Protein 1
Amino acid sequence: MLARFNHHFVGIIWHLRALYLMLLALIMAGAVAISATEKVSFGKAVYFAFITGLTVGYGDIVPSTAIGQIIAVLLALVGILFTGVVVAVAVQSVRYAWEETQSQGKQNQD
């Protein structure tokens, strides 16, 4: 069942690759914006953008300007979308794998 899940998960992710690339591009654009508005290095801004986008939020880098805070909220919203799509793909993959396992079991009984 795990192999079937992996097969479906990777397949669905592959079909949604444009969406994932767009979400990653938005996170990187947020990093560029944070780097410019908060006057931090691009590396720290990328770290901040991904930590915020993945909704971890360690709090070691905090935006101090109003624009930076707005960007942080937008990054969090992008991260919620990203996480939601991954969860939806995982649920759908479990469903497909389960259905295949059940139909295979019925074929073996016949």
Protein 2
Amino acid sequence: MLKWYVLSAIIGASAGFAYYYFIGCVTGTCPIQTNPWLSSSFGTLFGITLLPDLFAKFTKKPVEEQQP
């Protein structure tokens, strides 16, 4: 389970930095988009809270039906 948290933290941080780099904020009044550290931190936070459950859901092996 720890590997899912680490993987999702890396994906979230990468997505946060990509958001800063490609979208950003032209005027400089957006506190999250103007700082790469903040956008990467928020991406890491969202990645850790959202992605591990999604990974576990898709990698879980189906439970075989019990026959009497």
Protein 3
Amino acid sequence: MVDLHILPATPEMLPELVSLEETCFSAPWTRKMLEAELTGNPFAHFLVALRQDRSGRGVESAVLGYHCFWIVFDELRLMNLAVRGAMRRQGVGRALVMEACRLGVEQAATRAILEVRASNDAARSLYKQMGFIHVGTRPQYYTQPMEDALLMEMNPLVLPDCRQSERAHDSGGNLLLPDSL
């Protein structure tokens, strides 16, 4: 059986983050942009999801997904969420967003916002299940291809009810979640 560990990203993970970014997005952030978020933006938080083998063999080093988000005063702003293709719909994205919401609440954020491609049904469904609602549209926000962004918000920001009773942290404070989420 396998658990997810949600940890802060490190600069050493940058090559893998760039690769995942390029795989997941038609207009990906550049290495320089990712590095700036990871090391230079005081509002940015960058989490990765790694796989922990319960048999005791340790944490696999491959990044299954990442989430870059900002906490600016009372606002949690979800920026980029990327999950390896083979790991989609297995709870990785949900775990990353849950942890972002937890950190936002912990740091006194009162609302959360995000933009999502209008055609990204899977992401829209995830956010809706977690309590985000569609509050507006940004016409032709995305390029490659040109597409509207849907603005979604959770106001007030609350921890999504995603089996919170199963949430556990290891001795280092890392989030552990079963694969079944």
Protein 4
Amino acid sequence: MRKTRFHNTRLPLVGVLCLLFVAVAAYAPVACAQLPFDEGAAAPLGPTEPLGIETAEGVRQFMVEIAADEASRAKGLMFRTAVPAGTGMLFDFSPARPVAFWMKSTLIPLDMIFIGSDGRILNIAERTIPQSLTPVPSDGSARGVLEIAGGAASRLGIRPGDRVHHRLFPE
């Protein structure tokens, strides 16, 4: 069997690709450690604020990032690989209006809690589907939307009608 010049160059090319793969795999933990967050983008990227939800079983406490401008609302929790327990992101829509979200570049299921101007929960979309383009709408005009880990709302007994305590919702 005759080997062509192209065939002879395959082995070094495969070797170079293997070395590149090993180098990237060895460097990845170091590169991730240098990011402004860890756990695969699970920790908050910005400052957090306390938020409480008054449920039938008691008040549930969260530390939330605030998405108050168009850029932060557009990015949301995209590309995160986890939302740690007791954390989330609160989207500020002022004035209140009907809103809808999609999950195009969101990698994990989320619970979306739609909140009216009075701080009452309008509706909850539980365990939204990662990377879906299907709109997830509010039931009415929402002043805010709280995104938390998928399944957390049910586990914590959070229901429509519960009261959210945060500076965005006057008492």
